[in-house]
Amino acid sequence: MNPFSSGTRLRDMIRAIRACKTAAEERAVVRKECAAIRAAINENDQDYRHRNLAKLMFIHMLGYPTHFGQMECLKLIASAGFPEKRIGYLGLMLLLDERQEVLMLVTNSLKQDLNHSNQYIVGLALCALGNICSAEMARDLAPEVERLLQFRDPNIRKKAALCSIRIVKKVPDLAENFINPAATLLREKHHGVLITGIQLCTDLCKVSPEALEYFRKKCTEGLVRTLKDVVNSPYAPEYDIAGITDPFLHIRLLKILRILGQGDADASDTMNDILAQVATKTESNKNAGNAILYECVETIMSIEDNGGLRVLAINILGRFLSNRDNNIRYVALNMLMKAITVDAQAVQRHRATILECVKDSDASIRKRALELVYLLVNESNVRPLTKDLIEYLEAGNFVKDEVWHALIVVISNASDLHGYTVRALYRAFQTSAEQETLVRVAVWCIGEYGDMLVNNVGVLDIEDPIKTVTESNAVDVVEIAIKRHASDLTTKAMALIALVKLSSRFPSCSERIKDIIMHYKGSLVLELQQRSLEFNSIIEKHQNIRSTLVERMPVLDEATFSGRRAGSLPATVSTSNGASLNLPNGVAKHSAAPLVDLLDLSDDAPAPGSSGSDFLHDLLGVDLAPASTQPGISQAPKSGTDVLLDLLSIGTTNPVQSNSSALDILSPGQDNQKPIAALDVLSSPLASAQANSSVGASSMIDLLDGFAPSPLKHEDNGQVYPSIVAFESSNLRITFNFSKPPGNAQTTLIQATFKNLSSNAFTDFVFQAAVPKFLQLHLDPASRNTLPASDNGSVTQSLRVTNSQHGKKALVMRIRIAYKLNNKDMLEEGQINNFPQDL
């Protein structure tokens, strides 16, 4: 017999394919076999049709195309015999999916087989329908499947329930047809039917609120009785696993009770007793028992409040933490992170066990335990937990950046522990200098609080004695960190910032620090080279402003940081005496909000640093992401703006197209402003440059070594555009008038007019603005910095905006206005998005 004829047995073809030594030989065998099968299909060979389809399924599993055999599936399904139908339905499930149009042709055959007198053929049709059912097939065949839920044979009822799940997911509108039949299945004695029935009810509850209410009222008590019978049932060998009767049924029952009890106090009360019984009677020495206990804890934490049960559930998780199995401990730590939002006090009782997990040999457990310890920190335990966190930072190489970012936020807020923290980190550095995360936090703290380390400020009773630390010792730590071969770019950048801060705090070490910084002036890493040159310029030429630039970091806003991590920062709030009007452009905001909010622009041009990780990088002055260049924008050479940004340790920023002034990114318009606090600048991803006319301006020119801002030249304003009210609150109204210079469609000239609506005058008036990366902004100084009361005068300021995406993207701008009202600092913010369309 020809080894590749249609009469070849399946095993012979498999043997021939496996005997191939190369992929080319295999392809040749498959090609010949497919040719023989095509010939048999063309000849309508009925004797070997089922054998040919079996071969096609094997070829399909090897990854070769078999679409030419799809119609053979339908022919076999239409056959009268069970063997042919079995191969036909198997091929249908394997070779086709619900997206194939040819599947519509099989609907009639499925309907006939679902009504067949042979229950095995009915089972084949249910299996196929449950695997490849489309929405159209679900609507056509739902009545037959619903009828089969009451079939006499339990195997058919089980398959019908599984098929019903597929139908309900495909067409949720059909859910109401299955509610009563599904409720009937919950009274089954056959465990297989009962499990599928419970799963069907679970899915019905998810897609239909009516089904959820029905099962809550009619079936909760019955499910509780069923669970009680299973828990208390005697030994049954057909269902026993590790001494537990049918743990799969246990888990399905607990899952549906969780859904029924969530948000319903009556249903929760009904199941409290049985949940307590499951939690106390289930053995935890086997995996099956642990699975049931975990589902029981999930259910207890999800249903309505019962303090005693929740304490019991958290105690079970505490026992899990002592288990030798790493998987069980990891699951327990994950669950405790959810439970802490529900009952923090109960979780606090297991703090010692959680801290032990930080010492675990498994890095994933240490990582999860550290995250949980951070969540446990509160006012009452901050001292011991901070001590433990610092000691366990040896696990730092395995935690996410958000963890050490968060630790720095905690340290910043614990002002009475700054001295203790920097001393503890100094000791830890001496023994664990190879831990990257520990090194970063230690370098940051020494840069901020190095004087506290040297002067032993804020010594606590619980501290171990420490030998005297000199200024030179503190600089040694930063020098070791920056010269470590294993230190990455972020750590070295942070070390350079710490050194320039210490140069002001430790004048006696200033020359040594300068030498260390200058060591990197020829670094191949541009970031380090740039920082080295700029920081050296600060130390050598600008000692009059150095102390201001490197003053201590302000307290970091923990709530803001947490909100940015979760992506849920609230909208702006007002601190002004009057309520802001509900205008689309104007809202007022708390003055303590970080400057990064000003850059939180529209979705099409997101501001850098909007995530928690980037925010902390910006705060630390180590935003090392490479600058991206917008298509179509030519990158200008390094300008005075760039020098200023780098001198203020902002990290790599987007290139500025014009060297006109530092106001292109974020510009206030007030004259005679005080020098900028460098650490305020570090709290935003982009620098805020002041347009100063006297001392501030001359300092900036010195700082930039001659890069002075160039004034904005006013040109003939061409076409006139309608003016808009850009911002309005109870105190202030801003009006924008627009014009364009002739022959330059990309540039828009804006004349901003500010009017005081309150009964008191504004002093120290400053206007700031920020735009997305595809825009370039230039601000002239404001006409004055006082604004008369009651609309008796105005302040004007000129803006120039260049849109590199003119005709594609509209203008958008975030603004911030600061002023003093009755000697009280006021701050208002808003977003302007109603610019005329043709700008």
Automatic annotation (TrEMBL):
PROSITE patterns: GAE. Gene3D superfamilies: 2.60.40.1230, Leucine-rich Repeat Variant. Residues 719-836 form the GAE domain. GO terms for biological process: intracellular protein transport; vesicle-mediated transport. It is a peripheral membrane protein. GO terms for cellular component: AP-1 adaptor complex. Its main location: membrane. It comes from the Eukaryota. It is found in: Cytoplasmic vesicle, Clathrin-coated vesicle membrane; Golgi apparatus. Keywords: Cytoplasmic vesicle, Golgi apparatus, Membrane, Protein transport, Transport. It holds the Pfam family Alpha_adaptinC2. Belongs to the adaptor complexes large subunit family. PANTHER family: ADAPTIN, ALPHA/GAMMA/EPSILON (PTHR22780). This is AP-1 complex subunit gamma. It comes from Hevea brasiliensis (Para rubber tree).
